[in-house]
Amino acid sequence: xxxxxxSERLASYADVLAGELPDTWTSTHLTADDKDxxxxxxxxxxxxxxxxxxxxxHPLQQAAVLSRPDGAQLVLIDRHDERDxxxxxxxxxxxxxxxxxxxxxxxxxxxxxxxxFLGAEQVAGGLLVRYDRALAQVRHNALxxxxxxxxxxxxxxxxPDGSVATAPxxxxxxxxxxxxxxxxxxxSGIYRLDGDDTQAQARALREIGAQLDALGIGTAxxxxxxxxxxxxxxxxxxxxxxxxxxPTARTR
Length: 252
Known about the structure:
This protein starts with a helix and ends in a 30-residue tail after the last strand. Strands 1-2-3-4-5 form a five-stranded antiparallel sheet, with helices on both faces. The chain has a five-stranded mixed sheet with strand order 8-9-7-6-10, covered by helices on one side. It is built from six helices and ten strands. It has helices spanning 4-20, 35-44, 50-57, 116-143, 171-179, 198-214; strands spanning 26-30, 63-67, 73-78, 86-91, 110-112, 153-158, 164-166, 183-184, 191-193, 218-222.
């Protein structure tokens, strides 16, 4: 029989924890009725230590998923020992290739005190630091040399084949990119615009720049061979001539 008091306790703890963590987090409660979601979540838990050992003996019957706008997720689950409190683990990003995880240490989960306010301090000072570091590394690996964009700036990078690639930070930019010929890779999330027609490519980039600028989002054009940090570019900035493009050396 489902223990409603235990379910409410976990959900309430997750709500308070989400409100106390740095940045903005929301909480979603999964119950035993959400079997498919719990099974998928189990596969994505990024842990080879405490939480993995618990799951090996006690499959998920409920969980609370804490989500941050940038896609980061944490999962709160019950403890199955004599101690009070919960276990919290990071969730690995979905749809990234296996190669992106090579050489990246798991940001193993932690046991939390029964007090969510103290628990938030534990998370902020430990798990979140490891998780953000691991997230940055796997995303960098998946980007394969493409510099990640920021919410207020889209970084466009020339590719060896003459295409332009970018990894926008949110759907606002992604929608504009798709409307102007970019195609999103379903695994890495990278958007690419081919360079078969350089005039059409240049026109698309100018139109994208203008529309992003209207949303308060700057644009930057990166030349990989220069290996320098891109700078914000005006919305009407035309692309460099095709002859100046040179291949990018992979950094991972």
